[in-house]
Protein: Polygalacturonase
Organism: Trapa incisa
Amino acid sequence: MSFLRLFLFVLLLEGLLFEAKAQAIKQYNVNDFGAIPDGHTDNSKAFVNAFKGACQYHGHSRVVVPRGTYLVKLAEFNGPCRGPIDFFLTGNVKAAPGPREGGYWFRFGYIDRLTVSGKGTFDGQGQTAWSSNECSKNPNCKGLPISIRFDYVSNSVVSGINSLNSKYFHINVLGCTNLRFQNIRIIAPAESPNTDGIHIGQSKNVRIFDSFIGTGDDCVSIGPESTDIEVSGVHCGPGHGISIGSLGKYTGEKDVSGINVHDCVLDRTDNGLRIKTWASDIKSRLYNVTFRDIILKNTYNSIMIDQQYCPAGGCDTSKASSIQIQDVQYKGIRGTSISPDVEIFRCSRKYPCNNIVLKDIDISYNGKNGPARTRCSFLNGRSFGVQNPKACV
């Protein structure tokens, strides 16, 4: 066989293999199930039915949301499914305007090998509901719907999507294992209440990579019973920074450990790297935490442990937190602060913070209330290398 014929044969074979692979993923287009991309028709039923069909397919399936604007009031996608399943969004999905109490808008539950991808947008239309949020005044508020919930999802990827103006949290992760977020954009105004970017709880092996998160609350928040969590390459701002907690609010909370936050930028955030616990009798531990190679740009409270967390007021200040914080490292944290209190360690008098390590911290403050300073209580630890401002451990 001549070289030219061999080359053409190889090209033909590769084309056939590519076509076979494409055909192996069975497509379920929401338009084929009655969805109408006019921005006014409720397409909840069409979305759910498309997913149900894909979920029952014996093989790799894909739910496709084409270009256009789709109104969806509520969509719940539950497994287990019979094979890997994709949710591929190129259009824009809009929530119904106005407030609705609690719960969620989209929910993916009990699914293994899920991929949520595309360049489309989940638009929660939160601007039509934020005025109904009373959580800043009422610690027992029920809240508004979370935009996207991932409940007990495993071995899955969320990539390339956009989440805009959630009514409450943008993304909530509960009971998940081996879940990766990459190249996503989460956007809400700085003044939008409780619009956390990604909140993680009771989950293991969650990765957040190379994403932009700008909201009115925590860019990433890590709650009880979370282990082996990595946050890397995230640009955070506006928002309340990257937080662990709050911890110690609910009975039965379990330990948090193995948290690694590195190579991130925090830009004009109300807090920087924060750990927050309630002053309560609820016991658990937070340990094995690393914040490394973080750039701060005009942040408040750049490094903070607050074990008297009480955002809505009315707490019993005579109580001390029962959360034991230990083995926390801050390495290579540098940048600028717009508050003179650059490092705040307000640890528990009952269970002081142990083995807190500060290495090469260089945070400058050039305001009129200078010089930059640290404030520490009930803190045990060590410091190495550059310490600007001077460490209090």
